Records
---
Amino acid sequence: MRERTSWHRRLLAGLLTLATVAVTAVAGAPAGAAPAGGRNYVAISGSGSTWSENALQAWRAAVRQQGMTVNYSGGGSTVGRNNFREGTVDYAVSEIPYGLEGDGSTRKYAYMPIVAGGTAFMYNLKIGGRRVTNLRLSGEVITKIFTGVIKQWDDPAIKADNPGLNLPARRIVPVVRSDGSGTTAQFVIWMNSQHPGIWRPYCTSMRSATQCNVLSFYPTKPGSGFVAQPQSNGVSGYVAQNHAEGAITYVEYSYALKNSFPVAKVLNSAGYYIEPKATSVAVALTRAEIAADLTQRLDGVYRNADKRSYPLSSYSYMIIPTEPEAGFTQDKGYTLAKFAYYFLCTGQQSADSLGYSPLPKNLVQAGFRQVERIPGAVREDIKLETCHNPTFAPDGTNLLARDAKDPPACDQRGPTQCAEGTGGARQATPTGNGGGNNNSGGTGNQNAGGTNNGGGNSNGGGTNTQNNSTPGTAGPSTGGTPQFDPDTGEVIASGDGGGGQFVAGVPVSLDDEGGWQLRHTMMVLAALILIALVVGPPLLFRRVATAAGGDERGRR
C-alpha cells in the first residue's frame, strides 16, 4: 500500500516538475536565446525612418527566429536622430545625416547604409470610374504640384506628359508629411537641386533661404489645399481611401505595393518615364557619390542619363554607436552587430519583393567595416560569394544594373503612352496613344465624344459623369460615397455607408514570425501536461482508494 502511494506521489511530483519546466521554456524561449557561439543575445531598440521601416520590420521578424529581439519604432527620421542623441535608443535610422538642419549629437556614432529605394508618387485618380494606373509626370510638373502651381489634373502640362489619357477636371490634393521626415528632406533636396526656380519662391515665402536647401518638415500655406499626415503609413493610407480621389503623395515605393495602388512614372534625363523598381534604382545609384563617412551625394543620380534609371533614388542609413555610452553595452553591441551582418547579406534578398533595392557590393563591404566599429561586435569573415546578396555576383558584378532591361518605346516622351499598370496596381489603363482609337470598353470618354490629345478619336464607350461637375469640385455624391472638400480633401459628409470599401493604409501586424517554431511545440506540450495535472490526480487517488479498499477486504 505504502509503495503504491509513494509511486503515485512520485509520478505526480514528476508531472508538476515537467509542467513547470515546459511553461518556463515557453515563456523564455523567444528572448535571449544563445546563438551557436554560446553568447546570449540581449534586446536592442531603435527608432526613426518610416521610408525604410517595411524592410526593418521584415528583418526583425526574421532574426527573431534566431533568438534575437530587435525592437524598432518608425516615428520619422527626425525622431530617430533625436532619440539617438538623447540616448533613449540603441540605434537610429534616417535618410539624412546629422548637421543638415543644424542638429548634431555629442554621442559617438557612424553611418551604415541599410537599403536602397525610390521615393515614389502614389496617387488616387480615376477616369470614368476606372482607376488610372499608368500616370506619367515630369520633374517640373511634380514640383509644380507640390508647390501649388498646378492645381487641376487636366492641366495642360499634365496632359502633355500623358497623351493617351483624357484626364478629368478634378482638383489635385497634394498630401505631405506633417512630421519630421527623411522622405520629405530627400524630396526637398531633389526639388531644390533640379527645379530651384519653382521650389525656392514657394519655400522662401515661409522659410529662410538656407532652410529651403533641405527641410524635414514640409512647408504648407493655409488654404492651399494641401493635406498633411504623419508618417509614411499616414500619407499612403490617406491617398488610398475612397474619399481621397485626386490625391497624390510622396512615399517610398514599398507603401504603394502594400496598399495596392499605382505610382507615377517619372521622366528621367534620357527622356523616359520610369517606375522605381529595384533595377531602375540600382541603375540610378551607380552615379551616387559616397563620402568618406558613407553619406550620399545624389546630383549624379538625379541627372543619370541612362534610360533605365529612376531619378529619385537614394539610400537609407542606420546610425550606430561607436562607444559604450548612453546605456549602450558590449552585449547590446554584440546583438546589433549580428543583426547588421544579417541585413547586409541575407536580409537584402527580400528587398525587391518589399519594394526596395538591395545594396551594391561597395556599400555592403563598407557596411562590414562599420560593423566592426560597434562596441562588443564579433568580427565575421564573410566572403562576397557567401553573402547571398542578390545585387552582385561572386565576382562583384552588379547584377541588377547589368541585367536591367531598357524601357519600352511607349515609355519615351512623345505621342504614345504605355497602358501597363505600376506599383501595386498592375492592371492596364487603356490609352488613346496619340493616333489610335481608344477602345476602352466602358472606361468612358472624358470629352463625351471629343478627340484625344494626340488627334485620334476616343471611342470610350460612354460618357464620364464627372463632366457634370464644375472644375475644382468633387461632383455629386452617389452610392453612399463620402463627400470631401475639394480644397483640402477632408471628408465633409460621411455618406450613407454604401460607397464601397473604406481602405485604411495602416498595417496591423498579427505576428512577427511565420511557421511552426520551437515555442509552439513547447506550448502544446505544456498544455497536454496541464491537462494531465487536472485530470490525472482524481484518477490516481481513485485508483489508490480502490486498491486500499481491496487490501482491507483481503485482510478481513
---
Amino acid sequence: MARHFHIDDDEIIQYLNADNSGDETILVFDTEDQEFLEGDADEIGTDVIIEPPVNDKNSGSDNASAVTSPEPAVPGPSGHRPKWMRSAVETMPDTNNSSPSSATGAAPEERPPITFTWRKSYRPFLFRDDKKPQAYGQVNMDKISDSETLDAMPAPLHIFQAAVQFDKLVEEILVPESIRYMQQKGNTFSIEPAEMKAFIGMNLVMNYHVLPSLRSYWSTQPDMAVPYIAQVMPLQRFEAVRAALHFIDNNGWHDPDDRAWKVRPLIVHFNAAFQDILSISEEQSIDEHMIKFKGHNIMRQYVKGKPIKWGFKMWCRCDARTGYLYQFEPYLGKKAQHVEHNLGESVILHLTESLPRTGCQVFFDNFFNSPNLQYILAEKDIRACGTVRANRRNMPNCLPIDKNMKRGDISAASSRGIACVKWKDSRSVVMLSNFISPIPTITVKRRVAESANKVDVRCPLVIQKYNQHMGGVDLMAQTKVTYEVDRKARIKYYLRIFFDLVDISVNNAYIIYLKINEIYHFHDTPMKWIEFRAALARSLISDFSCRQRSIPTNIQTQRRTQMATNPRKPEHTMKKTEKRKRCYYCAQKKIENRTDNDKSKLESKMATSRYFTPTYAGYSSLMKEQGSLYKELMVKDTIVPKLDSDAAGQNILVGTHIECGENEGRQA
C-alpha cells in the first residue's frame, strides 16, 4: 500500500530552513497523513523498502515516487535534489574505476566530516547487491575434486590440503626458508617436504595426546612413552627441525614499519587460502582473538578481563554460524606515544574490503562501532550492526538517560539511514545498525530479581539479531582451544603464531568436511572433531621415519635408576647459627638448600677461588677464630696448607684439596 504526493524543491528548502528544524523533530503532517502513517506502521514488518524514483517523461519536474516508510521520501529529479537527499546508488563512488589521483599515486582527497541530524522517524538506506554470490558459504568443489560431483567423501588429508593449500605452504615457504635460515646461521641443515609434514603431524598428535613435557614423548618409562611418536624421528631431530622452522629470508627486504614481517608470508598465504576454498557467508562477525605469549615482543598485548590476558592480538572475520575464519590481521601495537584514533574503524574497513555489494551482514561490538563507521559501510553497500558506546562522537543526544528508563523501555532515533536503538534490560544497551529497522520488536523472558519467576519483556529485533550472529570469532577460538599446540616459545615468537594458524586451519578443514557431508550425505553420522584431527595427523605422518636405530628398550640407565631409588644426600654435619646461608655442598650440586650451618660460612671463605689466598696473618686469625671447626675440616677434607711467596715477597697460604668422595668433593 502506498500513497502518492507531490512536493517541490522550494518546499523542501522551506522546511529545512524553518525555525523548528533544529529541534530534531519530523516534518509537519496533517491529520490525514498522520493517520495514514500510523495505520501502515504495523504492516511494514522488518523490511522497509524504498522504491526508486519514477522518472515520468510527461510530468517534467513533478515526478512522484511510491514510498512505504514512516518518513516520506522526497521525490523529484535526482539532478535537482540536494546531495544529501540522493540515494546511495547515485552517491556511491565507482570502485571498479580508479580515480586519477589513485592511479598517479597522489594522496587521496580527505573525506569531509559527516554531520548527523537525529530524528525520531526512520528512513532506511538503499543497498545494491549486484555482486551477491549464487549461494552463501558454498564450498569451491574445484579445489576438492576435478569433477563437479563427488563419488565418495574425500579423506581428511585431502580436505586439509585443499583448504590450506598445504603442499604450496610446505614446498614454497616452510622447507626453503628453514634451510636458508640455518645456512645464514652457519649450520648445516637439510629437510624434505615429507619430513616437514611428519613434523607437523607429530605436533597434531601432541595436541590431543598431552604429556607433561616434550621429552616425555620419547621417555623409556612404560607409562609415559609414546612409541608412535618416538619411531618417527629422534628427539634431537625433532628439536632441530623446530629450531630451524622459519618463514622468511632475514637478509631480504621487508617493510621496516611492519612489526610482523617474520610471519607476513604466512598471513598472506592463509588469508588467500581461507577465502579461496569457501565462498562468503551471509552473516559474519568481526572481533579480536588472542594468541597466548608471555615472552618479550613489541606486539605483545595485555587485555584485562580476557581468558588469555598476555599475547598477540589478532583481528578476525569469521562466519557467524560455524566460526570459519575468512580473514585475519595481527595488531602491530601502538606506533606512537599519543592516543590512537579511529583504530576500530580502520580495522573494520580493512577486513571488509572484499565485501561491498555482496549482501553480507557484518556484526561487531562497541570497540569498533560508531555512527561514522556505519555510514561509511552503508556507502560501500555493506550491512553492519553492533553495540556502541554512548559517548561516541555524533551519537544522538535525544535518547533518555538510564535512570529515567525501566526494564523493557525502548527509545530510537535515525539519521542518514542509520538506526540508533537504546533498550533497558538489567542495564541499558545501545545499538547502531544501517540495515535493521528499529520498529520491529519481540518478546523475551527475563527473570525477576530475587525470584524464580520469569516475565515477558519487550525487546528490539536488532538486539536478537546481534546476539545470534556476534559469536563467530568466539566459536572459532572455543573450538581451537580444545586441542591446540601449547608449547612455550619465549624467544621465537613467530612459532606461537604459526602453530595457532595450524590449529585454525584444521578447524576450517573440519568445517568444510561438515559442509560436504551436509550436501552429499556420505556419512550418516559425521566424524567427530577429535576423530577428524587424529585421522589427519596419522595421514601427515604416514609411514615416514628417519630413525636409524631402534627405540631404546631399557627402562633407565644405571645412573638414573640409582638417582630414582637412592637419591644423593649430603653427608656433612650441620651446626646451627643465627643467620641463614646457602650450603656450599648443595650449591655445588645445584641443590637449593638454605642452612644455618656454621660450616658453610667457613667453607665459603675457603673456596672463593681455586686457591685459598688470604695473608698469613689473616690465616692465623682465622684459625684462632674458628678453632676446632677448622681442624675438623682440615682432617675431614684433607686440606694441606703450605706457604708460598707472592711477587711482593709476602707469605701467603695456598690450600690444596684432595678429593675425598663423590658426595663431598669440591675444588678449593
